[in-house]
């Protein structure tokens, strides 16, 4: 029966008992039957807004839509039983059969689709679009679920974004997740702070947290692994419990299941069978694919890889570089390595930038280290261009120091029996000498060894030594202009001076001078004795002369 009162249009049967309110349109059996003061409402359908008393500016279209609403306002419920239990909730839009059915006081929600947000009671600021989207949500807020059954099990979790059929379908209390794509994060239950984008990305995740999976089936099998970043189709697709991994590129880390803290960047990087270790880095297309069972390894470059299984602390850098043993570093495949130069011409080319310095330092192998190999004729040296070459002491090559010198009892010894020359421009040496210094030796002490006593000059004092007379010496000096037995100036210039021998000769001359002095002393003493005797005789003669003269005067 139609009535028009206070600008209300009432077409109900039985007649509505509304006694107040205005600008309401009530059409349907029991529609707005108890409206008292609510105004501006559109209630269309059997039992629509039947309990509404003071709610205003609501639009309930569909049998039993907004049935329990009493004072909720600014709601739009479209569909059979849409917002049926809403009581005081406001600013909600529920579109679809059973959409927001259980909402009581939730507000600012948008539910679109069959039974979307069906059990929402007090949750607010949610957007559920799609059949069954947010179906079980009760008090969760600030969620956005778009797609059939998206976030269907969510109850109290907040701040989630699930877009795609069955995305986050099992999520119950996990918060701050973002799932975009059909079946993304489908099995996630309580995990939080995950981002899955792409068809079936993170599909099997249950409790893993802080993951970012972007790409078709990226991280699809992950269940409990956390803090992973997988970007690319099938990247980390088989990872289940591995954590702290960073896979970037199609199929990157494809076979990793439980390995953690790996970094694989590049299509197919680190995706070989049994590549499931920890702390590995592979950068480049198909880099590290052969690193089966490896740990703590680094591969950088196109197809840089391991040449063996179970390697640790192995590094291969460069195009197709391959390392076969643990604790090793390989640079390139047939490549030259330059240190200090941009144009290396050898496998290892070092330019120190300083003349006459190699730029190489072996800190634990010095000149004081004992030789591990002796009595060898081959050694390393450099050619005129600075290339390290293998030399030999048996040919024309330069001779290594360890071939010519040895340290014996703290003494440095020349092992080749030849002489040592210090200085340039020396063509040859006299025989019998081991050391020649061109410009002299400065020292505070010098000791010359004498092999036998025969080489010293004590023989001058032996009986039978022929001591030249001074007259003979005078005649020799006049003829030769140097002492007998002493080399002349010409001989010294031509042959040098034997210091020990010269010292012996000089001592010989000193000893001869001593003998000359001794003889002169004896001669002098004899003359003195003779003079005394002559003086006594002269005195006696003088006395006799005086006596004779005295007698003559008498």
Q: How many DSSP helices?
A: 4
Oligomerization state of this entry?
single chain
Secondary structure class reads: alpha/beta
Compute the average pLDDT: 87
N- and C-termini, Cα separation: 220 Å
| Biggest sheet character | 21 strands, mixed
Q: What is the strand tally? A: 31
Describe the structure in your own words.
The chain starts with a strand and ends with a helix. The chain is built from 4 helices and 31 strands. The longest helix is centred in the last third of the chain and has 55 residues. The chain has a 21-stranded mixed sheet, with no helix packed on it. The relative contact order is 0.03. The chain has a domain of 50 residues. It is an alpha/beta fold and 554 residues long. The mean pLDDT is 87.
Summarize the structure.
This protein has 554 residues and is α/β, with parallel strands linked by helices. It is built from 4 helices and 31 strands.
Task: Furnish the topology, listing elements before pairings.
Elements: E1 2-5, E2 8-11, E3 25-27, E4 42-44, E5 59-61, E6 76-78, E7 93-95, E8 110-112, E9 127-129, E10 144-146, E11 161-163, E12 178-180, E13 195-197, E14 212-214, E15 229-231, E16 246-248, E17 263-265, E18 281-283, E19 298-300, E20 305-306, E21 314-317, E22 322-323, E23 328-331, E24 337-339, E25 348-350, E26 378-382, E27 388-392, H1 401-404, E28 405-408, E29 411-414, E30 420-422, E31 435-437, H2 470-480, H3 489-495, H4 499-553
Parallel strand pairs: 2-3, 3-4, 4-5, 5-6, 6-7, 7-8, 8-9, 9-10, 10-11, 11-12, 12-13, 13-14, 14-15, 15-16, 16-17, 17-18, 18-19, 19-21, 20-22, 21-23, 24-25, 30-31
Antiparallel strand pairs: 1-2, 26-27, 28-29
